[in-house]
Amino acid sequence: MNIKTILAAVVLFGIILLLFISTNYSTSITPEFDRSNNPMKITVYTYKNRDQLNKAHPGKKELNRRGWALWYEKDSSECEIHILQGKGLDDDITLSWGHELQHCIYGRFHQ
Q: Hey, where are the domains in the chain?
């Protein structure tokens, strides 16, 4: 093996390792409640930028916020999703849509 082959193998291994470490699908959800399999009314508000999204949020401002959900009483079937408009089919905003939808179904599951 020459040095170029070894270097290419090390770089390839590093990229694969970085992808594996940066993808975290193992975080489990501990639901506050469970509204799955029940009809829900979900109202979605989209925003063109983070400044507009933060102005709409009733609490603290976060520079990296991509969205937030507002759910009502545990027995309610209503929820609001406030989210940035996506820029592509499978971008990070698309992932945030699913994250906020889970809040409507399961309530609070992270700090």
A: 32-106
Question: Are 33 and 108 contacting, i.e. CB atoms less than 8 angstroms apart?
Answer: no
Return d(Cα 108, Cα 69) in angstroms, integer: 10
Q: Which residues 6+ apart lie within 8 Å of 108 measured at CB? A: 32
Q: According to the model, what pLDDT value does residue 5 have?
A: 56
Q: With DSSP H G I counted as helix, E B as strand and the rest as coil, what are the percentages for the chain, rounded to 5?
A: 40, 15, 45
Q: Is the pTM of this model over 0.85?
A: no
φ/ψ of 90, rounded to 5, equals -125, 50
How far is 65 from 23, CA to CA, in rounded Å? 19
Q: What is the pLDDT of residue 47?
A: 95
